[in-house]
Amino acid sequence: MTDIKPPVPAISLKDFESRKDEITKELLEAAETAGFFTLVDHGISIEEINDQFALSREYFNLPHEVKAKIPHDIRNNNGWEYKSQIRPSTGQADQKESFWLQHDSKWPSDEDLPNFRAGTKKFMSKCEGISEKILACFSVGLGFSEDHLIKAMDVTAPDNLTQLRLIHYMASENAAGTWRAGNHTDVGCLTLLFQRDGEDGLEICPGRESHTDHAIGDTFTPLPAKTGPIVVNIGDMLMAWSDDRLKANFHRVRAKDTGKSPDRYSIAYFNTGRKNVVMQGPLKKYPPITCGDYFLGKTKSQFGHNFKKNQVNPTVGTV
Ligand SMILES: O=C(O)CCC(=O)C(=O)O
Ligand SMILES: [Fe+2]
Questions:
Q1: Cα of 268 from ligand 2 centre, angstroms
Q2: Which ligand 1 atom lies nearest to the CA of residue 201?
Q3: In the chain, is it the N or the C terminus that has fewer CB atoms within a 10 Å radius of its CB?
Q4: How many domains is the chain built from?
Q5: Structural domain contains residue 251
């Protein structure tokens, strides 16, 4: 098998403190162009990643009635959803199930799923540590104080909106005409995505950013799935917050048009500004808006509430 080189830069976080300036440069360059990069030497071991995927698989293997004890709640976007997310770009439900979590959201009991809560929270903390490093670099790069974006996404604050999302795309056959995840940009600030060897399907579209349209008909490039490197991308909120300097680019997940596609599991950690924090870029390109208004407005449109195809957010771009 040929080893396909990922079409985005791999950025090492090794010796972060002493190499911060150099890393900041690399992160900015990637975020201002592809809007995607991978992180290596980030401090989460392959074993820790595999352990979290094992917990995720155990969760999705539960009977539907058990998962339905914590249904997706549009008010806070937490809980379990099954084939219910409609992307404005496709008008169809994504062929997947997912479980959205926050530290203080509803969790499956230890009787239903032993060790899930403790293990997953530990994983979330690891994601927080990595996110803080990247957010510190972006803060400085954008001309804010180093802790500007970190404070705005502080997961210990009661109004925090940052979430972990476990995702399971079911195995399929001859999937032409369906989408595992239709073209979209992420709503929040900074997404950390974990994938597993052999479970390809993610495709990205550098140069096609959220404030244009849905990238329909554009050429997407596969980003092969690998256990270890973290795929990172910029979301709409950080694009607006940076006066469009950092790009929230389109991506999607596909199964094979013909033949079998195995199950795909992915884990996304979505850093999002806190509900009551007012976001505005250093150049004030857009009017100030609270992260809560921005985020909930966009999220609702994807779960059948206030859904309008090609809806345009008055502040910035498409949803
Ligand atoms: O599963 C993936 O690889 C991508 C998921 C994604 O893009 C999302 O949930 O926003
Ligand atoms: Fe996404």
A1: 8
A2: 3
A3: N
A4: 1
A5: yes
Q: Could you tell me if residue 1 is inside a domain? A: no
Q: What is the CATH number of the domain that holds 241?
A: 2.60.120.330
Domain that includes residue 277, residue range: 10-311
Contacts of 205 (CB under 8 A, 6+ apart): 183, 215, 218, 219, 220, 221, 249, 250, 251, 252
In a domain, residue 108? The reply is yes
- pLDDT tens for 36-77 read 999 999 999 999 999 999 999 999 999 999 999 999 998 889
Burial of 213 (0-12, 13-18, 19+ CB in 10 A): middle
2 in any annotated domain: no
Q: Which atom of ligand 1 is nearest to the CA of 233?
A: 7
Confidence label for 297 from pLDDT (cuts 50, 70 and 90):
confident
